[in-house]
Design a protein that fits this description.
9 helices; 5 strands; 220 residues; Glutaredoxin; 11% strand; alpha+beta
């Protein structure tokens, strides 16, 4: 459970803006079909509502939105799954390396712990710092170092960003609730209302919950 003071601080910092949009916000599509693929996931595979976030680990608005999204998943653990997609922005000097570091933590089952630490220390993301956060997250130093030296983590980050560009992502955070797009940081009440509406529509569809996202949200 998110500590009340931490959640209150995050909510108080929210701005309805995204980090470095590459185009005017009105060019972002209202809906997106985002395959989950092998992305980091928090929540059940058969959740009625899938919340996808395209995020940059150096983006202040992403850092503010992160605890809100975690709280959204915590409030309905059976019906909401949170999916992370990397979208490092070119202007962020450490955005891509931080994303790769979290992928290496994910290889050891420590993605969410690593993402928390990186967001908490956005001003200190040099390689030595990232390695230290990986250890704090519970990663093996040897396995983390081997992953950083390899190519798989970088390929995963590149694939996420490429997918986001194809789908029309313009800036971060971009949050997608069962296909409905929210650009920029939004408060808990706004996203919770979107989740409730999406959940009600999903239940009313008559489609089995395990099939709903693939058949309806990603469907024709």
């Amino acid at each position: 459970m998110l500590p009340p003071m931490r959640l209150a601080l995050a909510l108080s910092c929210l701005l309805l803006a995204a980090c470095e949009p590459t185009m005017p916000a009105d060019t972002t599509p209202a809906r997106m079909k985002v395959p989950v693929g092998s992305a980091p996931v928090l929540g059940p595979a058969d959740a009625w509502v899938t919340v996808v976030v395209f995020a940059d680990l150096e983006c202040p608005h992403c850092a503010a939105e992160h605890p809100v999204l975690l709280e959204l998943a915590r409030l309905q653990p059976a019906d909401v799954r949170l999916v992370w997609k990397h979208f490092p922005l070119p202007a962020g000097p450490h955005s891509r390396s931080a994303a790769i570091a979290t992928e290496c933590a994910r290889a050891q089952g420590r993605f969410w712990e690593m993402a928390d630490l990186v967001f908490q220390h956005r001003s200190a993301l040099l390689p030595a710092n990232l390695a230290s956060y990986a250890l704090q997250a519970g990663c093996s130093e040897a396995d983390y170092s081997a992953c950083i030296a390899g190519t798989a983590a970088a390929a995963a980050v590149n694939a996420d960003r490429a997918q986001g560009l194809v789908l029309g992502v313009q800036g971060t955070p971009t949050v997608v609730v069962n296909g409905q797009v929210f650009v920029g940081a939004h408060d808990l009440a706004t996203l919770r209302a979107a989740v409730e509406a999406a959940r009600a529509a999903a239940i009313a569809s008559g489609v089995p919950r395990a099939d709903y996202y693939d058949r309806v949200v990603l469907g024709p």
